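Suppose a colleague, Dr. K., hands you the sequence of a protein chain of 395 amino acids and asks what its three-dimensional shape might be. Before reaching for any lab equipment, you can write down a predicted structure in token form. Begin with the sequence itself:
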Amino acid sequence: MPRQDTSGRAYDLVLYGATGFTGALTAAYLASHVPEGCRWALAGRSTAKLERLRDRLAQSDPSCAELPLLRADSGDPGSLRELAAGTRVLVTTVGPYLVHGEPLVAACAAAGTDYVDLCGEAEFIDRMYVRHEATARASGARLVHASGFDSVPYDLGVRYTVGLLPEGVPIRVDGFVRTNAGFSGGTLNSALTAASRPVAMARAARERQRVEPRPVGRTVRAPFGPPVRSGETRTWGVPLPTLDPQIVARSAAALDRYGPDFRYRHYAGVRRLPIAVGGALGAGAVCALAQVPSARRWLSGRLEPGDGPSPERRARSWFKVRFVASGGGTRLITEVSGGDPGYDETAKMLAESALSLAFDDLPETAGQVTTAVAMGDALTARLQEAGIRFGVVQE
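The predicted structure, expressed as tokens, is then:
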């Protein structure tokens, strides 16, 4: 199956799920950052909501008044196939992805359309690899999951850090993330859906392992270990059972620059031990409650999809990820940092990922790929220009 030519399509970029909380933030970011001549459109299942969003965007930028609106619904695969066939890049915020995501991935893989989401659901990403990687690789589509706070700061942060270490040597990196941010109803819904399916998640991971090639002559690990005390960051490191270390490991497996023996460990950095212990116990309790349908419904009802932190709350939010790294006798600490991670910065990361796929000169890749593999330095440069900081803290 030859790589499909998408140059003659109607749109360079389509944002699907534009009227949700994160979708609207992403639309606003795109409205002020798409390059001149970019052909883009908003898509969703409610034309009335899309029109109201377009009106809000036009108040800041009158050129948005004529922005095309496309109706599509995750329950109507035909509408998604039409959506994918009409654009070069399709970016989606419609979750939980386990519930709503696969038809759009399938449509993009078949159409040779680059796909970008902000999914943090490991089971979904593993299942999409097993079911659609071969089709996407044949068509030339790049399927880029986890293009928000899950997992751009870690994926690109480790890539940036590895680039400062000697080549051809074993490399060790520990990441410590700190933030004061809140979250939205959509994020809570996705997290509870994922937490309620540990057996299915493990099964999907095994199915992927059976078919995914391993790096030849190299070792890549992302172990889940015990809590640690980090003198370099002056924090307790609480292991995080998130998607992020898996994404980092996949980048390391794909890129020889990560060395012959690479290991990454991922932690929440907490200043005080009692808070670390309390946070671990609280996360465990939520995961346990997510197994009970009535409790899961009660938890998800605390925030409705579309609800999220206020602009004032987001303005006070921040994140910092410090990477303690060593290799070839060199030891250094780097940091990736920015503002509100879950929404303002996630919208920025998602939008810039899509713009990078649409307009940057990138390596030839296809299939399910990470941000570090697909966009790498180009996306890092975009995010730095947009205000997300990458730098060395200590050598």
